[in-house]
Specification:
The complex is a heterotrimer of chains A (334), B (188) and C (391).
Chain A (H helix, E strand, L loop, with lengths): L1 H4 L1 H34 L15 H11 L10 H18 L17 H9 L1 H13 L2 H32 L4 H6 L19 H15 L11 H4 L9 H26 L15 H20 L7 H29 L1
Helix pairs in contact in A: 2-3, 2-11, 3-11, 4-5, 4-6, 4-11, 6-7, 7-9, 7-13, 9-11, 9-13, 11-12
Chain B lengths: L2 H26 L23 E3 L15 H5 L5 E6 L8 E7 L9 H5 L5 E3 L11 H4 L1 E2 H15 L1 H8 L5 H10 L1 H6 L2
Antiparallel strand pairs in B: 1-4, 2-3, 3-5
Helix pairs in contact in B: 5-6, 6-7
Chain C lengths: L9 H4 L19 E5 L11 E7 L2 E8 L7 H6 L3 H9 L6 H16 L5 H29 L4 H21 L8 E2 L2 E2 L5 H26 L2 H7 L7 H7 L4 H4 L7 H4 L20 H25 L18 E9 L2 E9 L7 E5 L1 H7 L1 H4 L5 H11 L3 H5 L1
Helix pairs in contact in C: 3-4, 4-5, 5-6, 5-12, 5-15, 6-7, 7-12, 12-15
Classes of the chains: A mainly alpha (334), B alpha+beta (188), C alpha+beta (391).
Chain lengths: 334, 188, 391
């Protein structure tokens, strides 16, 4: 046990663990997405590779790995190659501060929340660089969209986070979870005595999370019926594969964050069994959110680009500002 | 736009999204509707139009085609070629060669419509697959009919023998018919 | 600054996303660039190519380039007999094959004065309206696919499959039916078909409600289609746009009413008209048309007379010299066949007036100044079938 508590060993184990977690999630969320789409569309989804299609991610992975990564002539080769890495690495970094259980966290930083958001915003730049470096018209249009979309949605998201900071008073993610102990009405999303609009805040956060991760109905970056494959048009093989995996890694991070901030993280819904079964509760909540993300994608058409910005500037930002002020007033009164 | 209508709009829009999500969830729990093709297949309806084939006359075990050539004339895409000879002792010509170019055929059915002796019909083959173009550009329908006739003869030994020995006199046919019932009865 | 600035010279405008030449920066007016949408593009539904001169995401000019699937149907009509051209008609617009065959068969019948038995006419109406519904379902799914909604097309295809199964059981083909013949039909309907159609009409009512709840009332779809892609009635008339496009511009023009053919005058049905002229109006017109088609089918099934399905047709069909037109309301608008005979077995001229061609023609003018996704949504609301344009 003392060997495992050695700091370098512990960090190495966490690094491997986080990489494996992200990799397995990215691979199997693709399968889950396709299976979910299949169910919603009343077809079985991939079911030929392995039992019930369970080997499909392996087959896809081999296919992508076997392909040559073409760097089209006239592109900025360095940026073109760097973009997939830049989109993948930050989401791995974010997971370093996510507490999966009471003691299951790589680095229990007191600015964990800040770290997640600062790394989360690199993702935008990577997508922009990828589109820019591709030297493709569809990709550049997509890049421009991604930037304005992410700038627009960063604001309501951070306003919501500030609201949460006022409620919790800490940036330490584990601390935030500790505050939500007890029955499920102690979760932040149900704390209507702190702010009657708390569920609305959660919905705003969730919508912003969808927009930040470029998920349908806000998938402007990869609007395949308009922009072929958006910023990824020129990418093939594992270059595309990494973008694809990063999308899912970002969803995982986003859903983790929503779970921690609003749904009590690893706290069990009825007060007991949070210690031992903590990671289980955490994953349960996280995958429920991910399922909702998938469900939303296969239900709605894509939003119009300017109505997406309208939604942010005209509805979400005023609403989140209002909740912010309301929370401030409520805290002052109580 | 006043604030109240704006709020009502947003709430109404949000509700429409929830309705959509309820519908997709409702569909998701219903059983799937697809047929897993190579493992399961559908039964083709009786009127299914596959490629044309020669009809085997269940009474004679031969084609009814008289090689009149009307189908060749009716075909919009010139995909039928046929030849026939007049056999001794028969009133009409019989077909010896019937070649269909299925690569050009548009399955319009003009040939079937126009045939005066109902000698061609649609087959029910829908998964016609080959690695060889020749298999479709020169589909030998007479050969296919022969394969069918082979099966037919197994099931109808007396008539088959009679057909095989044309033109023969009636007693001879009877004699051969008397000789061969035993293998025929074994056949299902 | 935009990364790729292609000059609008013919050479560079042909490139999709290739590197611009060194001369690109020198003569580049207004920083526009040319976006080559198609002929292989997910929103182009086949092989339509649109050369878009873009200013950022705003379209300055969208020029449709057609002809990638030109198959010389009109010329083919001139060198084969009347009957031999019949299979071609199903292939002009493969999604509404019944209507197209109807128009050609009707033109020949009108020229040769062939009487069609009433039972055949009623069955023609039933199958035509079934075909209209199935065509609108493909459009509905494909439009939603253009808008990024993946699921509706599979629900639509689930229902469309029922129509295709019915028609396959009736005439043996699922898409290119070739079911109408001069003077009647290829074969009579059986009880399986009639009962199946009745069941289908029953089945579709709740399904249409589901379509409405899932998609039509959806706020995202409403935002994407309402007040976007306006096409005025004047513009429709200028380019000869017909069908749901002109009805979505407030003009109640429907060939079934304006120049009644077959037995359409005997049925009660409404012509859906929406004066808003936007993409949503065209969308709603088609959704309402599905309901009206179901109504027509229901009436036709109830009134279906007994009798033969084939009239008297001469063995060798020679049309008297003359010029005959016959128009039908196809799923996409007015489809007209004009045949000119010089008394021979082979037509002198077969002119096909296809609706998609006219509906696409107005695209260049209508899409000016629109943003790319809106323009593609508008293209989806026009319901283009590329083989119908190129024919």
């Amino acid at each position: 046990m003392s060997f495992l508590t050695l700091e370098p060993i512990r960090l190495l184990l966490y690094l491997v663990g986080v990489c494996a977690f992200v990799g397995a999630n990215a691979a199997y969320l693709v399968l889950a997405e396709r299976k979910g789409a299949g169910r919603i569309q009343r077809r079985p989804g991939p079911n030929e590779a392995g039992y019930a299609g369970l080997l499909q991610p392996v087959a896809d992975g081999i296919k992508l790995l076997a392909k040559q990564i073409m760097v089209p002539p006239g592109t900025d080769a360095l940026l073109f190659r760097a973009a997939p890495l830049m989109v993948m690495a930050p989401s791995l970094m974010c997971l370093a501060v996510i507490p999966f259980g009471a003691n299951l966290v790589a680095r229990d930083l007191n600015i964990g929340l800040l770290l997640v958001f600062s790394f989360g915003s690199i993702n935008v730049m990577a997508l922009m660089l990828g589109g820019w470096a591709s030297r493709n018209k569809f990709a550049i249009i997509s890049s421009a969209r991604v930037v304005s979309q992410n700038v627009a949605y960063e604001i309501p998201m951070l306003l919501v986070v500030i609201t949460m900071l006022m409620v919790t008073g800490t940036m330490n993610l584990n601390e935030i979870i500790h505050q939500q102990a007890g029955w499920f009405w102690n979760w932040n999303v149900f704390k209507v005595w702190v702010n009657p609009l708390m569920p609305v805040t959660f919905v705003i956060f969730f919508i912003c999370m969808l927009a930040e991760t470029n998920r349908a109905p806000f998938d402007m970056a990869e609007a395949e019926s308009e922009l072929v494959a958006g910023a990824f048009t020129e990418y093939g093989g594992m270059g595309f594969g990494v973008f694809f995996m990063a999308e899912y890694a970002n969803i995982v991070v986003g859903c983790c964050l929503a779970t921690i901030l609003f749904l009590g993280g690893w706290q069990s819904p009825f007060g007991a069994l949070s210690g031992v079964l903590g990671p289980l509760w955490f994953l349960l909540k996280m995958y429920a959110l991910i399922f909702t993300v998938i469900w939303i994608r296969w239900t709605f058409p894509r939003t119009q680009f300017y109505s997406l910005l309208n939604l942010s500037w005209k509805i979400l930002i005023p609403l989140s500002l209002f909740t912010l002020v309301l929370t401030g007033v409520m805290i002052k009164i109580i | 736009m006043s604030l109240s209508t704006a709020i009502r709009d947003v709430a109404g829009g949000f509700k429409s999204l929830l309705v959509g999500m309820r519908i997709t969830l409702g569909q998701a729990i219903k059983p799937s509707i697809t047929v897993q093709y190579p493992h399961q297949t559908l039964k083709m309806p009786a009127r299914f139009r596959g490629h044309v084939k020669l009809v085997l006359d269940p009474e004679t075990g031969k084609s009814r085609c008289t090689a009149c050539g009307l189908c060749v004339k009716a075909c919009p895409s010139d995909c039928i070629e046929l030849d026939g000879i007049k056999r001794e002792g028969e009133k009409k010509k019989s077909v010896t060669e019937y070649e269909l170019d299925f690569t050009k055929c548009s399955l319009c059915g003009s040939c079937v419509d126009v045939c005066p002796s109902d000698a061609i019909e649609y087959s029910k083959d829908y998964n016609v697959v080959s690695l060889n173009r020749e298999d479709f550009s020169h589909m030998d329908l007479v050969k296919r009919l022969e394969a069918e006739a082979e099966i037919w003869r197994k099931h109808h030994p007396p008539q088959a023998a009679a057909v095989a020995t044309t033109p023969v006199t009636a007693p001879a046919a009877l004699a051969t018919g008397a000789k061969t019932p035993s293998p025929g009865q074994k056949a299902p | 600054m935009i990364a790729q600035k292609d000059s609008i010279s013919p050479g560079s405008s042909l490139r999709a996303g290739g590197p611009a030449g060194p001369e690109a920066d020198q003569h580049c007016p207004n920083e526009t660039f040319v976006l080559n949408l198609g002929p292989q593009h997910p929103a182009a539904h086949g092989v339509l190519r649109v050369l878009m001169t873009m200013d950022g995401e705003w379209i300055k000019r969208a020029e449709p380039v057609i002809g990638y699937i030109h198959r010389m149907h009109e010329k083919m009509g001139e060198n084969r007999t009347w009957a031999k051209f019949l299979p071609n008609t199903s292939r002009i617009d493969y999604l509404s094959a019944m209507h197209y065959t109807h128009a050609f068969v009707g033109a020949v019948e009108r020229a040769a004065k062939i009487e069609v038995p009433p039972r055949a006419e009623y069955i023609r109406v039933i199958t035509s309206e079934l075909n209209r519904i199935s065509s609108h379902m493909v459009w509905w799914g494909a439009l939603l696919l253009d808008l990024g909604g993946f699921t509706p097309i599979l629900y639509a295809f689930d229902d469309r499959e029922k129509i295709l199964d019915l028609l396959e059981g009736l005439c043996g083909a699922r898409l290119t039916y070739c079911y109408y013949r001069f003077g009647g039909l290829y074969n009579d309907v059986d009880d399986t078909f009639l009962n199946g159609t009745r069941e289908f009409v029953q089945h579709m009512q709740p399904r249409l409600k589901m379509y409405r709840d899932l998609v039509t009332d959806n706020i995202i779809l409403r935002k994407r289609l309402t007040a976007i892609g306006g096409i005025s009635a004047e513009l429709c008339r200028k380019y000869g746009a017909t069908g749901p496009v002109i009805r979505g511009s407030g003009v109640a023009y429907d060939v079934r009413r304006a120049e009644p053919y077959s037995v359409y005058s005997r049925f009660e049905f409404k012509i859906p008209v929406y004066p808003e002229s936007d993409s949503m109006a065209r969308y709603l017109v088609r959704m309402d048309e599905m309901e009206q088609s179901l109504r027509i089918i229901g009436q036709a099934l109830d009134q279906l007379p007994e009798g033969p399905v084939m009239g008297k047709v001469p063995r060798v069909l020679k049309l008297p010299p003359g010029d005959t037109c016959y128009a039908v309301e196809a799923a996409r608008g007015r489809f007209m066949v004009r045949i000119v005979s010089d008394g021979k077995e082979v037509p002198y001229r077969v002119k096909l007036r296809t609706p998609s061609f006219s509906n696409l023609s107005l695209y260049e003018e209508a899409s000016k100044g629109m943003i790319l996704p809106d323009a593609l949504a508008m293209m989806g609301s026009l319901d283009l079938v590329i083989p119908d344009i190129d024919r």
